[in-house]
Amino acid sequence: MSLFQKIKSYLFNNTSAKQTIIKNTFRLLIAEGVSKGSLFLISILIARQLGPEQFGVMSFVISFVSLFIVLTDFGLTTLMVREVSRDESKLSEYFVNWNFLKIILGIITFFLVGWISQYIGKPDFYITLILIYCGYSIINNIGEFIRSFFRPSEDMQHEAILKIINGIIVIAILWWALWMWYGLQGIFYAYLLSWSISLLISLLFVIGKKTIGSLKTIRRSILISSIKNWFFICMWTIFISMYIGIDQIILWFYNLTHDLGIYAFAYKFTLMYALGWWMLFQSLWPNTSKSVNIRKYNMWIKKIANINLILIIIIEILIFITYKFNLLNYVGLWEYSQSLEVLSILMIYCYIEPFGYRAYLHLISIGKEKTTTLIFFISAVFNVIWNLILIPKLSYYGAIITTIGSYFLIFIFSHLFVKKFFRSESII
Fold first, then answer.
1. What is the pLDDT of residues 109-151, one digit of tens each?
2. Are 107 and 39 in contact (CB under 8 A)?
3. Does residue 278 share a domain with residue 180?
4. Distance of alpha carbon 78 from alpha carbon 394, whole angstroms
5. Would residue 250 count as lying in a domain?
6. What does the DSSP assignment read for 239-257?
7. How many independent structural domains does the chain possess?
């Protein structure tokens, strides 16, 4: 076999568990780098044009909708990968029935958000923004679910291709909206239009690559069983969204819109950094679902955790240099200089968070949805209570303290439960 054939085989064929995980993680990272990375850069341009006050309004709308959009997801993506990884003959049945269920849930979510938004005590302009972004989020959620049907067979190159195509479409339309400057409402309409096009492309692509049954395969028994069996997945997804977005909503509630813009700008950086870890675990998930053997992965994941620590130290040095020499001034982001202080502290949670991801993977692999629900419920309650206490006194510093504290709680409880269910294994 020639060198070219070996490289081609390594990049395009599944030859071993280790090679498959590396291949899929690499592809998803590239895809997310093009898709979300470019979108992240556009977000910086949006922040620059809007300023902290208006960017705070945008962040509030996103956080508010995020609290409800989990009802559309319902945990189906996670469990579809687990179930289809074990029996790929169920793919067609799940694709038709669960997409139908997601559409119904999306409609319910849209009307629920529309109804609740009437009582936030803000002008109709806010409600319009909320409804536009809610429509985008529902479409995006369904699109992500459709693309995830390549994960059980570990053919994530197709998902990567779709993510890159979708990213290019989103960037092009958002760039046009910024160039023409249609305002905040125009930006949200650009999101909605771009992801509608992306959803159509993803649907056609998946149907072309996978054997999908007809609409006649919709079965009431499957839909009812799904709602009953995955209640806990839905609940912990809600709790996750609470401790991710509730701090920004509380900042807005106390009319700290400018501070919200500063905090949200820094928080976007941490989410982008955490994306790499999330892609790794998405690649691990199908293989782990087939055979629950966490010792097989713990050793080299712990090594990656050490690399994570080194990267965080490097990022902290870069933050210090940027702050010391006022480098944000040179790119027109001088209003966000305080975000560097926020980011330097938030990087602490970027070290803790991957351990929570890994525990989540282990516990879900053996069907411990109730356990993960309990962990995230405790964290969410802690998050809400301490944000309400600290934000009025410390503004975004209170949100930072609470965010790190919440993730530390997840880390502690996840460690204890993994020790309990896997005996000698731990997540550290």
1. 999 999 999 888 777 888 999 999 999 999 988 988 888 777 7
2. no
3. no
4. 37
5. no
6. HHHHHHHHHHHHHHHTT-H
7. 2
